[in-house]
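Pilot study result, target chain (195 residues):
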Amino acid sequence: MAQGSRLPAEARRRQIIEAAARLVLEQGYPPLAPGRIAEAVGVSKALIYGYFPDQHALFNALLAREFAALDAAGLEAASQATTLDAAALGCAELYFRHVCDHGPVIHVVLRDIFMARRLDPGLAAVRDRVVRRLARLVRRELHLPPDEAVAAITLATTIPEDAGRLVWQGDLAPESGLELCRRLTAAAILALRPD
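Predicted structure:
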């Protein structure tokens, strides 16, 4: 079906979200000019606004898509592992593979001040549930205070994110990226273990 032709509402919505994902990765930050999105989809700006009244709604929908893909891949289950090593390595591998396949969309959107206070509460709850589980393991096994546990998780997230980004960009072979991700995640945990 040609761009701009009549699509069912859900298909058009997915098309707009996909275009926004490509464009935000290309640009490196939100927001996007509505005209760019409309041009990429082959529709009018008015149609874009008909689906997403503002860019916060669009980027929340994009994050919802990304979080759903991570959930389908097993992130929730990986975060429920009983040891820090198993949980951290499982989550890191899943996130690495996601970034390899989809690019660092989550990072670009969540780290931007444009979205900082406009993240959908349901999406924040999903993110925070996984972080809380990992933080409990960090506190229990590494004996870090709560704020340092969350900081450690935030910093450790950059390992699969950057390794995946390098694979996604074509700068690193997938097998090498995965091995690097595993080794650096394990090393980060080991470096924080009490002597």
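One observation from the pilot: The domain at 9-56 is CATH 1.10.10.60 (Arc Repressor Mutant, subunit A). A full batch analysis is planned for the follow-on phase.
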